Amino acid sequence: MAPGDAYRARALELLARAEVETDPQTRAEFENLAAAFLRLAEQAERNTKLVIEFDLPPEEDSDRKPKP
């Protein structure tokens, strides 16, 4: 399963609920939530391509006491 698939599935569920909703305000909220889940799907896809490299600082001497 691709990283964004679960978000896309949820977006489809929300759009289906929006289609049968009679209250315009509630319908708009379902549509807004669906759009947000689609953005999350896109971000999840981008996150899989992101590579972060960093160096950890050297370990400190365990005998040294932390400063108060």
Number of helices: 2
Anisotropy-based shape: elongated
Model regions low in confidence, pLDDT < 50 over at least 5 residues? none
Q: Quote the distance from N terminus to C terminus.
A: 49 Å
On the 0 to 100 scale, the average pLDDT is: 89
Helix content: 55-70%
Total strand count, please? 0
Radius of gyration, rounded? 22 Å
What class do helices, strands and sheet pairing give?
A: mainly alpha
How would you sum up the major sheet? none
Order of helices and strands: HH
Strand content: under 5%
Structure description:
With 68 residues, this protein is an all-alpha fold. The protein has a domain of 44 residues. It is built from 2 helices and no strands. α1 runs antiparallel to α2. It is elongated and about 65 Å long. The mean pLDDT is 89.
Q: What features would you highlight for this structure?
A:
elongated; mainly alpha; 68 residues; 0% strand; 2 helices
